[in-house]
Fold each of these.
Amino acid sequence: MNAFRFLPALGKAAVLLVFTGFVLGPLTVAVFGGFKTNGELRVNPFGIPQQWDFEFYAAMLGDPAFWRYMGNSLIISLLTVFLTLIVSAAAAYVFAQIRFLGSRMMQAYLLAGLVFPFATAILPLFIKVRDLGLLDSYWAVILPQTAFGLSLSIMLFKTFFEQLPKDLFEAAHVEGCGYVRFFWQFTLPLSTPILATVGVFVFVQSWNNFLLPLVVINSRELFTWPLGMMQFRGEYLSEWNRTLAFISLTILPAVAFFIAAQKYIVAGLTGGAVKG
């Protein structure tokens, strides 16, 4: 390899190493912190533990409240993913396949949600959820998360659907296949990459959501894991080692979900990148 190719490759490797450090650095500190005492965390927050103490991780795994928090987060995240995929895929299919008056205006209206910060809507959202009688329930979190996830999901689905062969629908239409049947029997089975991509984005966002459950959920039995993490923070003392052990264990489902769908994500994001 000559110098003209070696130097750019070296630069790319250096940039990638820096970004890898930004991602893996905090994760490593959190995992190691769960093995340390609070005293060791104060004097050695970033290093390897002097003694590997498994007490805090074992206490988390043996605590029924930990599994309840995980179960609540899992139910909310999976239902949010299911509703978002169904609603956004159906809406994107209509925008991609059918031309009707006002379709562009409706698309622009939906895409405006991409620039609307979630936090600015938290007060009117709380009032609307209260008026619907959904406070302190799973649906108080699921429905708003689904609504706010539609903008990006519809944009990704529509771009992907527009790349599907038009001849396929025309052939199916000749055989008497309508729009609804074509959507369920042909479009969705051919859209595994974009379904996995949108599903991962929505799942991770819902799994890590802290603000919305904090505002609309009051019962400890319905707490998600970000709210359950607050039990280690008192008025005068914070148990940082238990907090870090708790965080290390609770991010595992999101990481596993991402790894399982990883091979589809690139295909889903690039599926609509080239338009013929």
Amino acid sequence: MKKNILAQAIALALMASPLAASASEAELLKRLDKLAAEVEQLKAELAATKKKTDTVEQRQDALAAAPAAPAAVAVAAAPAAAAPVSMAAASPATMLGPNTVLSSYGEVNYTRPRHDSSKAQTDVARAVIGITHRFDEKTKMVAEFEWEHAVTSASDKGETEVEQLYVEREFNNGLRAKGGLFLIPAGLLNTNHEPTAYYGVYRNFVETAIIPSTWREAGLGLSQTLDNGLSWDTGLTTGFDLSKWDASSTDGRTSPLGSIHQEGQMAKSHDLSVFGALNWRGVPGLLLGGSVFTGKVGQKTPDFAAQDARLTLWDLHARYTPGKWDLSAVYARGTISNTEALNQTFAGQPTPVPSSFYGWYTQAAYQLWKNSDYALTPFVRYERFNTANGYAAMPAGLAVATGPNEGVWTTGLNFNVGEGVVLKADYQKFKVDTARDRFNLGLGYAF
């Protein structure tokens, strides 16, 4: 009996084995089909992730090529928490395409003289649009177009101008060459002039009256940044035109170089100028530098009495940003030689050509408060300048009195909103011309 039962069990098992094997193969095929579908899904997800990564990398490359590169370097030398920020670093620029970036900055200011409120005024000081296009990873074009004082026409005071327009090529050793209309690397502000990049409603006097910011020339330039923190700039450019000097106007007293600049506008180019600048950022938060610009300014103008006149402008500058502090100082001095004969033709007029002019300032700012959206930074600045510090010797009876050594205290605060907007308020006290004492309010942005 037991043998029959065992025999029947074995027989059933043998009969059932093919069925079990068949069921296992079906299950395996089912699982393989499922795995194949999962692999296809992973491949699709991987492709989508790679596409996103490529897009982000392209944006980062374009942002790295944003305009005002010198400004970005200057900010990099200072802790962003304490210092104003430049246009390049203020907030992400807008992509017009994979290789083209749109940027902009602007400011609206209000001024109320302390002793004559009837002269209070509001001005859309400037609106600027910048475009940077990268042809490849080493070649780019930078352009900036500016409108000043809201309205430009024959009967208005506004201006429309090309502030920068150049092409730059970088070589394998880090050497950069550029050609076109570009900013001269003088002082701290000229290449870093967006309203979010400096303290006070208005740009300081030293870097407007002595160094004529925003100062640009047309020509060729070379630059390089070394591993030891040293960077250098040099170039051959257009210069100033002394034949534009108007001795009957006060423009030359306001800014000697501002009254004879050419700005790439059909600039006389018989006499070209050369410039050089050195900056060192070998210690975190510290920038030390200087520059010199020199060239003849007669421009071979027919019947002009100062054909051999030469302009030389140099400066020393420093900025240190330890922690929440932002400390800076600039000294600038200019000379114009061989002006004796020209000034004799200006006898009796109020503004002959000075042989020397100078200015310096020192400034301290402290980031008093900051959260994720706002930052409040009070500052104080003292500057001293003279736009007519000396004149070449004149015949007896024609001597001209030199200008005053004006001193200006400016104290106020910058209130940053987010990364690209700043509200400003300050008060300026003049040592000599006290009628210019004033309260200022400003709104600026940069991206």
